[in-house]
Amino acid sequence: MKPIKVILTCAGGLESVGKIESLKSVKERKVTVVGTDMDKDTPGSHVADKFYTVPSGDSPDYIDAMLRIAKKEGVDVILPASQNEIISLSKNKALFEKIGTAVACSSHESIAASSDKGLLYEFLKKRGLPYPKFYNVNSIDEFKHAVAKLGYPAKQVVMKPRLTSGSRGFRIIKSGVDEKELLLGHKPADNVYADMPELERILGSGKFPGLVVSEYLPGKEYSIDVLARNGESLIIVPRVRDRVMHGISIAGTVEKNAEVEAVVKPIVKAFGFDYNVNVQLKGSDDGRLLPYEINPRISGTIAAATGAGANLIYFGAKLALKEEIPKVSVKYGTKMIRYWREMYTR
Questions:
Q1: Domain-embedded: residue 126
Q2: What is the DSSP letter of 219?
Q3: Distance between CA 142 and CA 135 in Å, rounded?
Q4: Rounded to 5 degrees, what angle do the CA atoms 23, 73, 343 make?
Q5: Secondary structure (DSSP) of 161-174
Q6: pLDDT tens digits for range 196-231
Q7: What is the DSSP string of 11-35?
Q8: Distance CA 28, CA 15 (A)
């Protein structure tokens, strides 16, 4: 088959190496990977075939920078891997189509509705789809009222910014937090607990941020990678998040699960998603699997699907090129374990 060039955005981080290697492992054709990121001195910059530093995805200069790179390199497909970038790229798909570059992302409308946590839960609620109990809050008084309505202090409650990524701002509100134990017994990045007095002090000063307060989901956690076309789920690869560190999955098991698929398919259809989508589910108090986050883009751990026999990141590029997707046999039970590895450069 004809060789292709792809841009993988947000290609600098630790998780990017697996994505790049997935693309370069393709047997049916040569795939040249052009990585872009805000930071050059990263593992991904040395694994990609070419690498460019670019402004932040929400910068007014971002699209022009990406157009220059795509035109210079003769890029066939852009594979967005971060929230800010996919929002900007989805708005400007037509500009890239004019130079012969496809952008593998859903419509801007579906991306905007699923990226804002408040809009996401409202969208699911209005369509009769599963969702956690939640409140969108815009003041300290609304925040305190919502936390109480969700059962605090008898129950734990979750808070997160409406627009965020990478677990930034995520906290579990818990009564009786032992601050000394958190200080001395946990690494700072692993501490997700907070108590109300602390949060009231922090959030009560200055401008109040837009937050979602929702029920705590104590059950089994799944991260599901989906390849979609016009809302149809072509391939679904569910993965149990066995161990998470700093919000990143470092151990997981690919699992065949009909219940997971039954929850995910209507969500993908309702949004009309295309290409790569990631849906995260967790078990509630009463045993239901509820979506708590949807990422309408390549997930950080999509390489686990490649390891299980479904190279979804490459299949996303094939969909953008209007090519047929081969039948795959997912190797359920495949375990992913991440580890630190050194890289030396000069």
A1: no
A2: S
A3: 9
A4: 50
A5: ESS--TTTT-EEE-
A6: 888 888 888 888 888 999 999 999 999 999 999 999
A7: -SSTTHHHHHHHHHT-SSS-EEEEE
A8: 24
Asked whether residue 306 is assigned to any structural domain, the reply reads yes
Q: What amino acid is encoded at 314 in this protein?
A: Y
How large is the average pLDDT for residues 179-208?
73
Residue 24 maps to a domain: yes
The per-residue pLDDT for 192 is 77
DSSP 174-212: -TT--HHHHHHHS-GGG--EE-HHHHHHHHTSSSPPPEE
**Quick one: 90 and 59 in the same domain?**
yes
- How many residues would you count in the chain? 346
Query: Which pLDDT belongs to residue 32?
Result: 98
Report CA 158 to chain centroid distance, whole Å.
18
Give the pair of three-digit tokens for residue 103.
């952008």
Residue with tokens 């998040």: 241
**Could you tell me if 292 and 189 lie in one domain?**
no
Which residue has 């500009």 as its token pair?
95
Could you tell me if 238 and 223 lie in one domain? yes
Q: How far apart are CA 49 and CA 222, in angstroms?
A: 32
317 domain-assigned: yes
Q: 222 and 329, same structural domain? A: yes
pTM across the whole model: 0.92
Q: Which domain holds residue 138?
A: 133-215
Residues paired with residue 132 on neighbouring β-strands, in sequence order:
none
Matching residue, tokens 């190797």: 331
